[in-house]
Amino acid sequence: MDISQSIKEDILKNQLPRGVPLRQTNLSTRYGVSRIPIRDALLSLKAEGWLVPNGKAGVMIPDLNWKEAEDLCLMRAELECLLFDMAFDHIHEEDLFEARCFLSELDKESLSLVNRGELNWRFHHALYRAAERPTLQRVVEGLNKQAVRYLGFQYGPLGYKVRSQDQHEELLSLIESKDKKAALIFLRQHIEKAGILLTEYLKTLNT
Predict the structure, then answer these.
(1) Which of 6, 16, 88, 104 is the most exposed place for a label (fewest CB within 10 A)?
(2) Residue 42 CB-half CA count within 13 A
(3) 21: which DSSP letter?
């Protein structure tokens, strides 16, 4: 069992308390493992932005807020478009084939939100990796991992799943037609429109 994945799922399902310290002993009992894998999982989740420091050595689940969501969107739009621009002329048929395989997996109804977020990143990574810029890719991957925390809104009340899949298909079509300018514009719109929708929704929750 991947403890990090299990904790992420429980965070997305609101089954762990926000804004209070997470106790390793409680989590050890909950997941039926020793404190060592719990400690390692918490360190990993803290590095990914799923947890924040609390006290001298503790961690807690942060509240979701529109400013963080907007920041993630703004950074993703800039850096992913930069990476895509570098990759575009080097994307091969095998990259497109792999991207379509991930797209097919994303159509499955049984996916958890964490798995859906991971597959969404793998789809995009299949298109970006031809840039061969590992440092930039690591930063972009980190932003995507943090953004998964908000998928419960995007695929829940905002109903963005079908729209997102349709846009992924359109992006692949633009790549296949070798229309780089249109593909870059479309990718930015794909990221920004989803971000605006999410940000505006989160603002209504804070009023």
Answers:
(1) 104
(2) 21
(3) B
3-state secondary structure of 94: helix
Measured CA to CA, the distance from residue 201 to residue 53 in angstroms comes to: 27
What is the DSSP pairing of strand 52-54 with strand 58-60?
antiparallel
Between CA 60 and CA 58 the distance in angstroms is 7
Of 80, 74, 77, 71, whose CA–CA distance to 138 is shortest? Answer: 80
pTM for the predicted model, two decimal places: 0.87
Give dist(CA 4, CA 15) in Å, integer.
14
Quickly list DSSP for 159-170.
Answer: --HHHHHHHHHH
Sign of CA dihedral 185, 186, 189, 190: negative
Q: Read out DSSP for 57-82?
A: TEEEBPPP-HHHHHHHHHHHHHHHHH
Contact between 191 and 77 (Cβ < 8 Å)? yes
Q: How confident is the model at residue 35 (pLDDT cuts 50, 70, 90)?
A: very high
Distance, first Cα to last Cα, the chain: 40
**Element at 36 (helix H, strand E):** helix 35-48
Kindly tell me if the per-residue pLDDT of 84 is higher than 90: yes
Q: What's the pLDDT tens digit per position in 147-166?
A: 988 887 877 767 777 888 99
Give the integer Cα–Cα distance in Å for 77 and 146.
Answer: 14
Other C-beta atoms lying within 10 Å of the C-beta of residue 174: 19
20, two tokens = 């209070």
Alpha-carbon distance of 122 to 28, in angstroms, equals 31
